[in-house]
Write a structure and sequence with these properties.
The structure is a homodimer of 699-residue chains.
Chain A (H helix, E strand, L loop, with lengths): L5 H21 L6 H41 L7 H34 L3 H37 L5 H49 L11 H33 L7 H23 L10 H31 L4 H25 L4 H9 L4 H14 L2 H17 L6 H16 L2 H23 L4 H50 L13 H42 L12 H72 L9 H37 L1 H7 L3
Chain lengths: 699, 699
């Protein structure tokens, strides 16, 4: 039982290593004065954005805190709920913030290292990614174990079953806070980054005809800031939420599964092993000087595989030790999730990398124009949903059966939930390989703006394009684990409502049959909510990008000598426009996540809410995979043409591919990756407001 | 009880009126020799396509017939099943065929009438649409009542409950035949029409810079043929299937609802009233000479509203007479569907017509280029899913409660199913307003090719653009009714499996809870199947369009004097390429519909199949609405710019809008409208192969 101490220990270790890697990065040189100045501009912009975002988010959290506080005063939720909510939000945001800090300190250093060798560049960028990965899992695990200790102590007088329920329900609220914050960070950052990117490209590349990252482009700093606030801070908050969510939802099912407190600590322990394995894995990421891209990818993979193997071995002994060998099926569920994660990563690569057929064919379709490239890209994205769905399906059914679901339904559900923990157990290192991408992207920008040698830019480009593949993998993990976690959330929702029904003597029984019209309508509304959510976010990008286009055009017209490189553009105004635009749309989007389960609950009752969650998961899972992969494929098809294929840069095919890439930007970096957060946010809101809905529902 | 005779009488009347309207059309002049020649070319192409399609489809039906025959020999299905399947397919195809026959006879006549006045043109085109509408409902109702008489007579010795089960299950197979045929017709026709359209536009409009429908374009005849085989023959087969499916699925629920044979005949009778009301409604579609477009739309609407009011009044007495006043709730369910249909039509118009904000804003986004127009169009489509989903949701819950679902679950399901019959009861006339669109489109093509006066083309354009709005409405009906019917199909599936379980003493009980992993995986796979289906169909369009582009480019290069109008292009080769391309992809797509429920059933069992159907309905409903409305909005945004807004024809905004329109083509005319058929086909396959799956399933 005392094994639980492993969690804070592993977490602390992860944070120490994060500090160590930060130190390694910081001691590198930032290069010339010009590079330092550019890096400083990006840092300033990113900080300005985050300060403003946290202000906006602060209001939301304050409002939610008051609502939850009132609910807790009236006895609708436990006394810890408002505080758990706040801390979840804080640490999700904090993880993103720290990740961004290190990323904005690493970009120029990566550029400088790339002027020495490709491998040196990789080491700096990857170290920066590793800091982010270890911070996310470190804080995630630390926060959960602290809450666990506090709650376990506070409720020590209660019988074990009831105690677990109180512990897990407060921890779920912690997850809700993390999800809310993640939604803001992902969507806000996503709108910022893509508005800047699209706006910069539309005027710079297409209208004025200057290269990407040209310092004359007024939106170029905003574009580079965007990489940090969206792809780093947003990503960090997102995966913090996924990580915490998968652990918490498994814990919540422990009582019903008949595993007691052992069932609560197993997910924490698996995560702890994963953290340790990730730390070890990072040391396997190294390669000879001037290795090819394929070798580099192999180096990253080696780190992940090493971690996975360690987890696979140690978890076995852990499960036997904690649960006993009669529950060995739980181990196989964990293994199942771990393997499914590797497959999902591989399939994401297959559909988005230009070394395989789908993206090559997509590039071919650019020859007949932008319309065909859009149609083909949509097809690739839609087709790419098949394999992840099948993998997740197989994983669900195997973890269910193997953990003993045929005899004990709830044990089977627990098996499915913990397979998600297995899938995310390698997060420390997979996130490292993912978060290094934006750093490489920035490094390229700095090389271009500082006018460095073409060879440097070529090296940063190589790192960047590798980053595209790892980014697709990261998104696959987030949404795949969300699909696995979803069932756990619906079950946790049902359990929590049933407990409330019993305690408050309310006349309600669940009928979760898909033939129940309440459930069916819930399914429809849930599916629709993900589409509407995607529409909102894409619209916001479109609007903000439009503003950037106008501003960049204005500067090119009004600032004399800008085009000739004799005058400086006003970078700050573009950063400012993106910041404001991103914030403006956020509240509407967050309300969609919070209000939908409430409204559905008040009209259709808890059955409708369960349907809503299932519908949002089903449609959202598929939509998210489609958007992530279509976007990735468009991006890499463009890069494939830029490498000189099908006419190369400047050809008509290239122009068509740029349109595809631009459409893909909000797909893959704004709407797509935020859907998994929306699903989980809706689930947690449903659970937290369960009694409220139960009391006031019409049907 | 003898009221059932109303069904064949109404059906025959509808067919007689169809003959009368055909006669009215045929007696009009086809215009000049040149116009007659062009019309003949289109007819020849369309016939050639259909002959080839029916050959390909023939093999599929033969194969299925043999499979079903074997299954019936081994006692898995009843002896009527193979024959019901064949007749369903035959009449679905036949309705489309006849509709196309009259459409290809009306196009030049509409052009000629337009040279007199707009109203004369409307009358000819609408008469042609009315023929199609009345043929679809007439044959649908006639075939169902004939099968009803045969089966009722054959099974006369059985007790009433068992007799109804046999009757309805054979009628369901009839529906399966219709769905299979509809899938071929919709998808095959959809691929043909969009490949020709996209191919013709890409080279003609964009590369060579000649106007739409220019006779020098080698793909122009194929484009016009496509309107007929896709938007007419495909549409007819599709709605025949929707119509029959909604009636049959209601009948199938009658026993469980405790309504007995009365419950079986009520849907047939409501449909009969709808047929009569539609015939009456067509006579209200008239207007003064040279009326404005708004007045014209009003004229079409008047016909629909008149029919709806007649149905609303007469159904009341019908329900009271047949079921008695204690079942008056059933009447309100019918009314509910009828009203929901009108709302769905209105919302489709709101999101796709350039008189409202969404399409206007979409047109604005074309100013910043094709990427933003694509992003905005996707947003409009996704956002537009909200209102139909809410309308269908409200309709489901009201029909369920009002018909008595709170006390008798199965009666509530019956209420939902019959609300779909209510929604489609006006089909005779709504289909008429829908099917006239392609005729007007063709008329415009003929005016252009025959070099008629610009005023004529302007009139045909006015008719055509009106047709865009009514087409969006038609698609809304088809998918909305599919969503309502879905629950009935899942229930019918459950009932039929339970009957088999009971009869064959199989150890199986349903657990349709969304927490059952089998159901959840089914949901995922169902959702994914609709995305993969859309990808397949869009890919096929892309491939076929690519072939047309190559062929048209070849002709412009090789045929000397073509560009100067001195030589004739080889129209037939383009028709031939489209025909072959459409057929090639069809088998793969049809197999997806047939194989998916079988594979899921054999692995996950009947619970997984039910989940599959629910998932396909949820995601498919939303995806279909998104595709139909995004496509419609892109098309009308382009037309809005062509009317002279935002720079008008030839401006950069126009070019961007053309890209949007081209992407929208396969969305709205190939993938989108076929999804509802896929859903129902999977449902019927599941039912027909129920015992087979039950016997051989792993789980």
């Amino acid at each position: 039982m005392n094994l639980i101490v492993l969690a804070p220990v592993a977490a602390t270790l992860a944070l120490l290593f994060a500090a160590y890697f930060s130190f390694c990065v910081i001691k590198e040189s930032e290069g010339s004065d010009k590079m330092q100045q550019i890096a400083k501009n990006i840092r300033t912009g990113a900080n300005a954005y985050l300060v403003r975002q946290y202000k906006g988010v602060g209001f939301f959290f304050l409002g939610m805190f008051i609502v939850l506080f009132l609910l807790s005063s009236f006895g609708y939720v436990s006394v810890f709920v408002p505080f758990a909510f706040i801390t979840g939000g804080f640490f999700s945001g904090f993880s993103g913030f720290l990740g961004m800090k290190i990323a904005t300190s690493s970009n120029a250093r990566t550029t400088h290292a790339c002027s020495k060798s490709l491998n040196a560049g990789l080491r700096v960028a990857f170290s920066s990614g590793a800091v982010m990965g270890l911070i996310v899992v470190g804080f995630g695990l630390l926060d959960l174990s602290i809450w666990y200790y506090i709650l376990d102590w506070y409720y020590r007088g209660l019988p074990i079953a009831e105690r677990i329920v109180y512990i897990t329900s407060s921890m779920l609220t912690f997850g809700m806070g993390a999800s809310s914050m993640a939604l803001f960070a992902r969507v806000g950052g996503g709108i910022f980054t893509k508005a800047a990117d699209v706006g910069a490209d539309l005027v710079g590349k297409v209208e004025v005809g200057i290269p990407e990252d040209d310092p004359r482009n007024p939106a170029v700093i905003a574009d580079n800031v965007g990489d940090n606030v969206g792809d780093v801070a947003g990503l960090g908050a997102d995966l913090y939420e996924s990580y915490v969510g998968s652990i918490v939802s498994s814990c919540a099912l422990a009582v019903a599964a008949g595993l007691g407190m052992q069932g609560v600590i197993i997910p924490l322990l698996v995560a702890s092993i994963g953290v340790l394995a990730s730390v070890i894995g990072t040391f396997f990421v190294k390669t000879g000087e001037e290795a090819s891209q394929k070798v580099l990818l192999g180096a990253l993979r080696r780190g992940i595989y090493c971690s996975a193997i360690i987890i696979a071995i140690v978890s076995y002994f852990l499960v036997v030790q904690v649960l006993g060998s009669e529950y060995i099926g739980i181990y196989f569920s964990i293994l199942c999730g771990l393997i499914a994660g590797l497959f999902i990563g591989f399939f994401a690569e297959y559909f988005t990398s230009s070394t395989y057929k789908p993206t090559k064919q997509l590039a071919d379709s650019a020859v007949t124009g932008s319309a065909t490239v859009i149609i083909s890209g949509m097809s690739v994205g839609m087709l790419s949903t098949s394999l992840p769905v099948i993998v997740v399906g197989i994983s669900v059914i195997i973890s269910y059966i193997i953990s003993g679901g045929m005899n004990n339904f709830n044990l089977g559900l627990y098996g499915i939930a913990i397979s998600a923990v297995g899938m995310l157990s390698t997060l420390g290192i997979t996130l490292a390989t993912d978060a290094y991408g934006p750093v490489a992207d920035n490094a390229g920008g700095i090389a271009e703006m500082a006018g460095l040698d073409a060879a440097v830019r070529k090296r940063t480009d190589a790192l960047d394009s590798l980053g595209n593949t790892t980014a697709a993998t990261g998104k696959g993990f987030a949404i795949g684990s969300a699909a696995l976690t979803a069932l756990a959330f619906i079950a946790a929702y049902k359990d929590s409502i049933e407990l409330l029904v019993q305690k408050n003597h309310i006349d309600f029984t669940f009928d979760l049959s898909i033939l129940n019209p309440q459930v069916l309508i819930g399914l429809f509304v849930g599916g629709m909510a993900t589409f509407v959510f995607a529409a909102f976010t894409m619209n916001s990008v479109g609007k903000a990008a439009g503003m950037i286009v106008v501003e960049v055009r204005r500067q090119f017209k009004e600032i004399i000598g800008l085009m000739e490189g004799k005058a400086e553009p006003d970078y700050a105004s573009c950063v400012d426009i993106c910041t404001k635009a991103a914030q403006k749309e956020l509240i509407k989007i967050a309300l969609l996540g919070v209000a939908t389960p409430l409204v559905v609950g008040l009209i259709l009752g808890p059955n409708g809410v369960a349907g809503l969650l299932a519908g949002a998961t089903t449609t959202g899972f598929i939509l998210a995979v489609m958007m992530a992969n279509a976007g990735g494929a468009w991006d890499n098809a463009k890069k494939y043409i830029e490498e000189g294929n099908l006419g190369g840069k400047g050809s008509d095919a290239h122009k068509a591919a740029v349109v595809g890439d631009t459409v893909g930007d909000p797909f893959k970096d704004t709407a797509g990756p935020a859907i998994n957060i929306l699903i989980k946010l809706m689930a947690m809101v449903s659970i937290v407001f369960g009694l409220f809905v139960l009391t006031w529902s019409i049907l």
